């Protein structure tokens, strides 16, 4: 019961109002360092890794909390994460490194600098996560990653293990007058694995072949000086094949162009020679056989394969028309 007491003394009236302390919004919000969930970029072609930023995330970066708070984080509350590593990015089997940026939310607004404390209590990140909004189920802080473009790397599995030092100090219970009734304070270190698998790939430039026009078979000239350019994954050994087209002769293996029901036999030969360029075994061409930059793939530079194409002259001249064929080029690693 509230009581009003009156005191007389030295001519002064002293009024003292005693109120009971009402405690509200108490929270059992306790945080702890827990095992993390790995962050994976998945499997990406070397070309995508080099040209386009890719994203990844971990739903659990090692700090989980339970409880609920009715107010936003105060200025003296903090959830610090200090991320370090012995590497500068994702390290691959040949020593290549893929760089990436770590973010405090799923935008690019809050990048985390390695070795520098990042406070998840600032910018309302903790409030947006609802980290302290679940009295019974622990919620974890996620992190988000974005790869940095420009990495010319070999195929393989790229990994990094991040060390995340957590330190937290926040009000875990609030009184009726907004007075903090107790603080949850703690620290710990979690390890987070990040991985990305780079797959072999190529950028292929293969212009069409045109024999022009002629009245008779013998008047068609050899198409020479033709090239196929390939920019394939750094360090990759590969072979290049050309299939037999859509109208190939089953016996003898000649390629043919078609116009209506009529055919015009032709073929494609390696370099400037007479060896047919095919799609099986020795008929293929190896990266080491390129006329320009022979050897394994360069990633950002092209390897050039020369070829020539001729119409067979030991066939009868077919009726006039536009003759076409489609040949599939494939690269095998």
Automatic annotation (TrEMBL):
<feature type="domain" description="Spore coat protein U/FanG">
    <location>
        <begin position="22"/>
        <end position="164"/>
    </location>
</feature>
<protein>
    <submittedName>
        <fullName>Type I pilus protein CsuE</fullName>
    </submittedName>
</protein>
<dbReference type="InterPro" id="IPR053167">
    <property type="entry name" value="Spore_coat_component"/>
</dbReference>
<dbReference type="Pfam" id="PF05229">
    <property type="entry name" value="SCPU"/>
</dbReference>
<dbReference type="InterPro" id="IPR007893">
    <property type="entry name" value="Spore_coat_U/FanG"/>
</dbReference>
<feature type="domain" description="Spore coat protein U/FanG">
    <location>
        <begin position="190"/>
        <end position="328"/>
    </location>
</feature>
